[in-house]
């Protein structure tokens, strides 16, 4: 495992939407598709792997939250996410409802 990935693993956590709202307000939240590994995406962003990141953006596997998603999450502030901080961004994956 690379040093970056090891470091990022320590930043991986579970978060409620309530905690993520300030990051969303500064346009720093990035939604990662379920099929992708949050740590792989974080590592690519942290190590400036623009080829991978651009591919994921092109395939809409990493996106900014849509207005519909934001509305849904704002109405359920206890919604859970896997979250990974990669300054200045917060990468999130929705957790399935329990």
Automatic annotation (TrEMBL):
It comes from Richelia sinica FACHB-800. This is DUF2288 domain-containing protein. Pfam families: DUF2288. It comes from the Bacteria. The lineage of its organism: Bacteria, Bacillati, Cyanobacteriota, Cyanophyceae, Nostocales.
């Amino acid at each position: 495992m690379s040093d970056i990935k090891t470091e990022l693993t320590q930043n991986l956590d579970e978060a409620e939407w309530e905690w993520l709202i300030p990051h969303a307000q500064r346009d720093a939240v990035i939604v990662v598709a379920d099929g992708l590994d949050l740590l792989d995406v974080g590592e690519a962003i942290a190590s400036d792997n623009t080829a991978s990141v651009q591919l994921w953006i092109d395939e809409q596997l990493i996106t900014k939250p849509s207005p519909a998603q934001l509305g849904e999450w704002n109405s359920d502030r206890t919604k859970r996410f896997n979250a990974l901080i990669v300054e200045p961004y917060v990468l999130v994956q929705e957790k399935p409802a329990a």
